Every structure is written in C-alpha cells, then in structure tokens.
User: Which sequence fits this backbone?
C-alpha cells in the first residue's frame, strides 16, 4: 500500500511586480520560507527531491537549468532536482510528481517550488509568450492569445446560460474582497459593483480587454513564487516537522485537444471534469464534501465553468450561486478564497503551487481574519493549463 | 528562354487533411487517424501522406471576440477573431472581418499572409461576411 502524503511546509511571496528581482532568488525566498515553516531550515538536507515548476524561464528570463540553479542557491546539493514545464499547470504537475515520488517510495521529503517573473518584459511580450502554448499554425500563428480564447468561451457561455456582464463583475467583486485580505495577493484593493459595472463611468474603469471580457474579468500579469514541502506521513521522518501534515487526499490530471476548436462542445472542459473525477474518486469524496476550492479563474467566467465541471453545480447553474453570493468566504461554498488568479495574480509557473498553499493555510485555520473559511475539512485546487488542455486537480484534507 | 514560373507567388492556402484509408477529415492534421489509426507520413517515404485539400469558402461563425490587448507585433488598437465551422464539420480559428458579428452568421473564409507575429510570415484565415 502506498504511503500517505502530506504537506508540512508552505512558503509564498507577495505576488506583483517583482521585475527587479531574480527569478531564482524569489523561488529560493519561498523555499526558505517553507523550510522555516516546516521547522527544518537548519536540517534542510532532509529534502531528498526538488521539483521546480516554471513555464517561461527560457523565454522571458533567458535562463535555463533553473532546477540546478535553485538547488545550488539553497545549498541543497547533491539533492536531485528537476524542472517541470506544463504551461500554466506546471505547479499542479510538479506537486503531482512530488506526490508520485513519495508514494513510490523514491523519496520521503520532497520540496516543490513554482515561480515566474513575467513582468520583466512588456505586457504584449508576456501575452505573446503565454500564447505560444497554442497550436503553432492553427492558433498562435493566427494571432490568437489566451484572452481571445477566454473571451470566445465567455461569449458562448453567456449566450447559452444567460450569464450577464454584471454576473461576471460580481465574481470579480468577490475575488477582490478576498484578495484585499490576503497578504500575498497582487491586487489588494477591493472593488464595488457600482465602480466596475453600474456607474456611468464604469466602462472607463472597467474597459474591454477582449469582448465580452473586461479588465475586471481578466487576471493581471504577475510575478511570484510559492513552495510546498511534502512528506511521507508513514515515515518516522514525519515527526520532525513543526506542523501536523495536511494530507493530499486526492489527485487527478487529464488532457484535452490541443486546438480548442476541435472540441465537440467548446463549452465542455473535459480535462477539468476528468481530473476532478479522478481526484474525488481517489479521496473517496463527492463534490458536496468539498468545503472550499481554488479554481483557475484566469478569466472569471472560468470560475463558473470549472465549478460546474467539478460537479459543484449542474451546467449553467453556477451563476445562480453567484447571484446569491454563495461563493463568498461565509457562503455555502467559498470559491477562490485567496482572491483567485483574478486578484491574487497569476505568475503562471507558480499558480498551481500557490493554490495548494492557500488550501493548506485554510485547512490549518491560519488565513487572515475575515478570510478564514469556517471549519474547513476538504479543499480542492484546479490548475488549468493551456485553454483547458492539461489540467491537474488536487484535494487536501485536514486529518 | 526565362522560366517565369519560378517567380510564381506561392498559393495562399491552408490545408486540411483526409485520411487515405477511411476518408476522415482533420484540421490541423494529427499523426494518427482517430477513427482507423492510419499513420500519417509527412515525408511520404514510408507511407503515402494523407490527402491535403484547401480549407476555404463558406462557413458559419460559432463565436467571436474583439481583442484590445493584442500581443507582440500588432500596431493597431484591436483585432477581431472568431471560430467557424465549415459545411464538412471541420472548424478553424482565425481573423474576423464583419461590421456587426452575430453567432451563427454566414461567412466566407480566405487565406492571407500575416507578418504581425514574430518569426516568418504566417498564413492566416480571414473570415468575412458572405
């Protein structure tokens, strides 16, 4: 029987514009934060495997071999270290590989670090870089970017399910309220429905980015890093850590067509559904058992669509929960308690790890006042790569 | 005599592919037919390559957007993009030229050369009103 795997250390840097800092330095900062949190800063050689999640180091930072650089920056040689690149799902994939390393018996203590510095280049270069995950001729070459895919998805979704721009603005208001209380969030300013939707000047504050998506429907371009430390909970080494482990109860991943236009129904996110089904089956849970979730809302419409694919709501019904404010911190099912990608930010390689850091903070009961979910037992993270073509779902449990 | 044919402009077409075994059609082409598992061989050395045919003409708009945050290379404030479906069921994404786009509207697909994106010129679909 495979050992149980838990998270005993977390580290995070405030997301935002960190363009004056070195990518490996900000990763190393969160790694040392996690080692300190775990209580093994001086005994860091307990880490017997390092996985590093990053999407654009080679393109944006002109730096390759990032795992080797990080292990050396931390003085962790000769610990094995590998880089994981899986687009915006790199972080979730790195945690999955960390889990597999522990579950297989190849390692007892694994450190997973995700990081990205996207603001070292202009916004249009960053947009171009992320767009390279599309099909080279049929998507990227046509000029399509991720905001374009998000917008075309949103237009279909809004048309089919009667979702309005006001509904999307309500999701943004909720995300910004959460981020305003999250010390790690990129955008810590709350916003109101009046300012971004209802006032006569709302269209100035909240202009179109890719119609029908507006500024407050889209995540910012962020720099940042996050770290988690995994342990074999059934090993004697587990006793060395300061915090009781938060168990990884379920984990699933799946892929979908590279070209978005080749999906039978462009609104079906099959990889989300399949990865969530696998994670729930592994955890022996149903969607109704989940206390709160971090969903990959690079575009706020994805919070609704992913919530439906995971099984929290029937198709087209998530908007009703939004209108009833059920996804707020004190609601029936809090979503994106961190502020989500929308307001916490989306440094692509860091995002999946950051989502799991948030699960651990909530399950430990250590989120900031006003942002803590009441008595959570199970948290779920959905990390969405490409435009839904490579997805990782992770469920964490308070033992 | 000078052979002027060498100066002919390369035809601007984007190809879909037909599996030679079961006639299933794809855009873009995979390396294996999802229906009969026939392999493609772009080199034509080991197997006969699949039959290419130009993807163009009448199509229907499935969804669209006007993007104001364009990526590197564009020097205009916005550009419209859409996903269309051809009568044979194949779908494609590309640029959209329509005064008032409406999902389900009839369009015509043509191919143009684009130099906006980094790298060599790319062939792009342009969908305009029928």
Assistant:
């Amino acid at each position: 029987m495979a050992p149980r795997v838990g998270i005993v250390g977390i580290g995070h840097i405030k997301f935002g514009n960190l363009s004056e800092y070195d990518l490996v330095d900000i990763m190393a900062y969160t790694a040392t934060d996690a080692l300190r949190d775990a209580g093994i800063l001086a005994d860091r050689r307990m880490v017997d495997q390092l996985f590093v999640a990053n999407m654009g180091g080679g393109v944006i930072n002109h730096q390759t071999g990032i795992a080797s650089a990080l292990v050396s920056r931390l003085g962790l040689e000769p610990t094995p270290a590998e880089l994981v690149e899986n687009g915006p799902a790199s972080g979730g994939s790195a945690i999955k590989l960390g889990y597999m390393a522990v579950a297989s018996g190849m390692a007892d203590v694994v450190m997973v670090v995700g990081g990205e510095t996207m603001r070292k280049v202009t916004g249009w270069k960053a947009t171009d870089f992320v767009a390279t995950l599309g099909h080279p001729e049929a998507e990227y070459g046509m000029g399509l970017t991720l905001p374009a895919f998000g917008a075309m998805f949103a237009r279909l979704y809004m048309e089919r399910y009667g979702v309005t721009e006001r509904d999307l603005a309500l999701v943004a208001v909720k995300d910004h309220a959460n981020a305003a209380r999250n010390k790690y969030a990129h955008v810590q300013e709350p916003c109101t429905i009046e300012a971004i939707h209802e006032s006569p000047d709302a269209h100035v504050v909240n202009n179109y980015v890719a119609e029908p998506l507006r500024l407050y429907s889209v995540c910012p371009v962020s720099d940042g890093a996050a770290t988690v430390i995994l342990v074999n909970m059934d090993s004697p080494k587990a006793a060395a850590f300061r915090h009781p482990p938060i168990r990884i109860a379920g984990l699933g991943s799946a892929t979908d067509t590279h070209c978005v236009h080749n999906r039978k129904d462009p609104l079906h996110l099959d990889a989300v559904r399949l990865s969530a089904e696998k994670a729930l089956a592994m955890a022996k849970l149903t969607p109704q058992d989940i206390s709160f979730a971090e969903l990959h809302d690079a575009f706020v419409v994805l919070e609704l669509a992913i919530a439906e694919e995971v099984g929290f709501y029937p198709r087209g019904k998530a908007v009703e929960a939004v209108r009833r404010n059920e996804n707020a911190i004190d609601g029936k099912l809090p979503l994106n308690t961190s502020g989500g990608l929308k307001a916490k930010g989306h440094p692509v390689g860091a995002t999946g790890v950051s989502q799991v850091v948030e699960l651990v903070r909530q399950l430990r009961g250590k989120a900031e006042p006003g942002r803590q979910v009441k008595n959570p037992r199970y948290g779920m993270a959905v990390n969405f790569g490409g435009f839904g073509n490579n997805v990782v779902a992770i469920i964490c449990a308070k033992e | 005599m000078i052979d002027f044919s060498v100066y002919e402009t390369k035809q601007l077409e984007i190809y879909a592919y037909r599996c030679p075994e079961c006639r299933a059609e794809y855009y873009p082409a995979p390396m294996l037919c999802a229906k009969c598992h026939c392999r493609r061989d772009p080199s034509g050395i080991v197997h006969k390559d699949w039959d290419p045919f130009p993807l163009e003409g009448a199509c229907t708009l499935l969804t669209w957007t006007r993007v104001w945050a364009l990526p590197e290379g564009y020097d205009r404030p916005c550009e419209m993009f859409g996903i269309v479906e051809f009568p044979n069921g194949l779908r494609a994404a590309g640029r959209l030229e329509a005064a008032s786009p409406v999902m389900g509207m009839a369009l015509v697909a043509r191919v143009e050369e684009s130099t906006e994106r980094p790298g060599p010129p790319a062939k792009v679909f342009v969908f305009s009103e029928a």
In short: The mean pLDDT of chain B is 90. The interface with chain A takes residues 14, 27-28, 62-74, 79, 81-83, 91-95, 103, 114, 116-118, 122-125 of chain B (CB under 8 Å). Chain B has two domains: 12-54, 57-129. The domain at 57-129 of chain B is CATH 2.40.50 (OB fold (Dihydrolipoamide Acetyltransferase, E2P)).
